[in-house]
Design brief:
The complex is a heterodimer of chains A (149) and B (167).
Chain A (H helix, E strand, L loop, with lengths): L1 H21 L2 E8 L2 E3 L9 E15 L4 E8 L3 E3 L2 E3 L4 E5 L6 E2 L6 E7 L2 E12 L7 E13 L1
Antiparallel strand pairs in A: 1-3, 3-10, 4-9, 4-11, 5-6, 7-8, 7-10
Chain B lengths: L1 H21 L2 E13 L2 E7 L15 E3 L5 E8 L5 E8 L3 E2 L4 E2 L4 E6 L6 E2 L6 E7 L2 E12 L13 E6 L2
Antiparallel strand pairs in B: 2-4, 3-11, 4-11, 5-10, 5-12, 6-7, 8-9, 8-11
Classes of the chains: A mainly beta (149), B mainly beta (167).
Chain lengths: 149, 167
């Protein structure tokens, strides 16, 4: 009886501890807003935007754990067979967040730090406009990753 | 028995404690990016007024415009297979107070990909250039007036409408 009691206690402790183990560093990433670029004359608006996106970053739990926030585009902007390179989409951010340009090839770092961190930042997205674009409704997705290894 | 319980408990504790040391943490979010690109066309010609000076028809049978070369820029957004066209149509003959010079006496040569030379008309729009797909096309026009002893003395003027169309 005492044996099973000990097992149960240990398992219970494990279930209780397991979330805390994950919670040694708990990351939480949230995006607020959307990015939709309207049509515009390339002569009068060589850059379309800003389209604001608020990013919420939470890295809590064990202190002193480094974290990074990156973004990588899943594809170029596409409309049927027409393509606008995703590198024409960039964002501006205030320090300590970093401005940058989207890429399908590599993750681009937006911010880094050390836990505990609970912060939000505004990223202003821009699309470089051009007369070479083919008319259409373009779409793409980008994956934001908040990681504390 | 006590030893067996101890081993089991230790094993259980080990399994439940492993995540403490092995797992990092990450979270991801997906952002959808949309962009609307509409068809449009913009034409720029500079300068927009040209002047043919007086000249002796024998010495100067063809009078170049003072402003040559006139620059032209055609900007178009259209489908990949869409053909855009630039045309011109004069609103009439070169007209003075009481006399006229047929607008067909005004011709132009053109440089720049897609631009073509031609003769002015006030009857039918004349092709000035055509292109496939989106882009910016730069060129130049050099205008000339065929000179003649038949012209009456006067100051003549007329306007010409240039139209850039994209499907």
């Amino acid at each position: 009886m005492m044996f099973f009691g000990c097992i149960a206690a240990a398992l219970l402790a494990g279930f209780v501890l397991a979330p805390q183990a994950d919670a040694a560093v708990v990351t939480r990433l949230r995006l607020f807003g959307s990015v939709a670029f309207p049509d515009a004359d390339p002569d009068t608006r060589p850059q379309i935007g800003p389209q604001p996106l608020v990013v919420g970053v939470s890295v809590v739990g064990r202190t002193g754990v480094p974290w990074t926030l990156t973004v990588q585009a899943d594809s170029d902007l596409t409309s049927g067979a027409s393509v606008i390179p995703i590198s024409n989409v960039g964002w501006a951010a205030a320090t300590p967040f970093q401005s940058g340009t989207l890429s399908t090839a590599v993750p681009v770092q937006i911010a880094s730090g050390v836990s505990h961190t609970m912060t939000t930042a505004r990223l202003d997205f821009f699309l470089t406009n051009s007369w070479t674009y083919v008319p259409g409704l373009y779409t793409a997705t980008a994956t934001f990753t908040l990681a504390a290894p | 028995m006590r030893s067996r319980i101890g081993r089991l408990l230790a094993t259980t504790m080990l399994f439940t404690a492993l995540p403490l040391a092995a797992q990092g943490a990450s979270d991801t979010e997906t952002l959808t990016i949309n962009a609307i690109v509409a068809a449009r066309a913009t034409l720029t010609i500079a300068p927009t007024t040209i002047n043919f000076p007086d000249a002796d028809p024998d010495a100067t049978p063809s009078i170049p415009a003072n402003e040559n070369s006139v620059s032209v820029q055609s900007k178009v957004r259209t489908s990949s297979a869409g053909v855009s066209t630039l045309t011109c149509l004069a609103n009439g003959a070169l007209q003075s107070v009481s006399d006229a010079i047929a607008i067909s006496n005004v011709t132009w040569t053109a440089s720049g990909a897609g631009y073509v030379p031609g003769t002015m008309s006030d009857v039918a729009a004349q092709n000035v250039g055509s292109w496939s797909g989106s882009g910016t096309r730069n060129g130049n026009f050099d205008f000339s007036l065929a000179n003649s002893w038949d012209y009456n003395v006067g100051s003549y003027t007329q306007t010409v409408l240039y139209t850039l169309s994209a499907p």
